[in-house]
Amino acid sequence: MDAVQQTLSPSRRLSIVLGFTQILLWGGSFFLMAIVGGPIVRDTGWSHETVYGALSLALLISGLMAPFIGRVIGKPRGERLMRFSGLVIAAGLAIAALAPHVTVFFLGWAVIGTGMALGLYDALFAALGKRYGATAGKAFTYITLISGFCTTIIWPLLTLLLGQFGWRNTLLIYAAVLAAVIFPVYTYIFPKNSASTPRPAPKPLRDIARRATGEPKVYYLVMVHLTIGAILMTGMSVHMIDILRNNGLSLPAAVGIGALLGPSQVGVRFLDLFWPKKSQLTATAISSAGVLAGMGLLLGSPALAAMGIVAYGVGNGMRTILRGTLPLHLFGADGYAALMGKLARPQLIAQAATPFVGGWVIQSMGVSVFVWVLAVLAGCNLIISLLIRKTALVRTIAAPAVIRKAS
């Protein structure tokens, strides 16, 4: 009995360790190209679009694989598959580092995309949700709080390695670190003889309401909401400096204001640890409103740019946590791992397309039009968040009537 009680909720130490592993995994995949892309273009002569397109390929492959990975993680001891994420990303980095031709470089990033599907947020949240149920929410907050420092830690480290060893050796060094760290850590966290924590049977109110009040509508609303959020995050991550410079800011000023994003995202995650228990539905609406406010401020005068980045950062920081906690709150822990995989596919595919579409809009119509597109999407997402809240509340209110009819 004691052993079961000890595993009912993830420990703070476990969450902190997983947060640091996420820094390594994100730094060696999604955030890597921002630092090494330029040196690769200059050294190889490959076009900018080709080099950065490799990241889009990785995101596409990760999205296509996400539902399958989610189903595997949902099986008994399926979370042990995550042990190989570091090894797979390391293999992809090694292939990319040794690539004599751009085709081999793309092959390396295809392998990296497979590793991303195995080890980034969606897979990890699925594994923790499966093991701990509703109590995994606090772990999501700790993990995203720590991993929010990814660019703060990894980008200077990559810059230092590039100056000393060049981009090819930098990738090989990073690959060696991933191979040495992730496999043993995840093997320890998800041991062979582990099993999912037994959970109480669902309460009749929740169980009957889930089956009888149109949950597919909520699912599709959540899917669209998370996908739009992923597009907004990717568009801002890739083109933030362009957006700020379009406001008339110099490059140093744009970089300085852009640096406010990290503290804003991490700050709201830190505050989440101390806020009283709140509705995930309300938090979703607040997050969407923050992103929309940020976009609106970025459309204003340069004096409002810093406030815009902070508002966007607060909203997006909340969104990262809600990416794991909102589906858990609405649909429960049963089948959560497979659900996270299904929800991840459209998000990652949309992320893969965003740099290309965003670049085309900027080149064809200008940065201001691109920001307006993001603002319209953010407005739509706020409306969708309110529809999610309304639909979920109607479902909850309708449940007692369903129970009376069933009895």
Provide the fold topology.
Blueprint (H helix, E strand, L loop, with lengths): L1 H5 L5 H16 L5 H12 L3 H27 L10 H13 L4 H18 L1 H12 L4 H11 L2 H40 L14 H9 L2 H32 L4 H8 L2 H12 L7 H19 L6 H27 L4 H30 L1 H40 L1
Protein described:
The chain has 407 residues and is an all-alpha fold. The chain is built from 17 helices and no strands. The longest helix is centred in the middle third of the chain and has 40 residues. The N terminus and C terminus are likely disordered.
Structure keywords:
407 residues, mainly alpha, 0% strand, disordered C terminus
Task: Please give a quick description of this structure.
By secondary structure, this protein is mainly alpha-helical.
Shape: globular
Instruction: Report the sheet-strand fraction.
Output: under 5%
> How many DSSP helices?
17
Distance between the termini: 34 Å
What is Rg?
21 Å
What structural class do helix, strand and pairing data support? mainly alpha
Give a count of the beta strands, DSSP E runs of length 2 or more.
0
Weakly predicted, low-confidence segments = 1-7, 195-214, 397-407
* Percentage of residues assigned to helices: over 70%
Rounded mean pLDDT score: 80
Order of helices and strands: HHHHHHHHHHHHHHHHH
Biggest beta-sheet profile: none
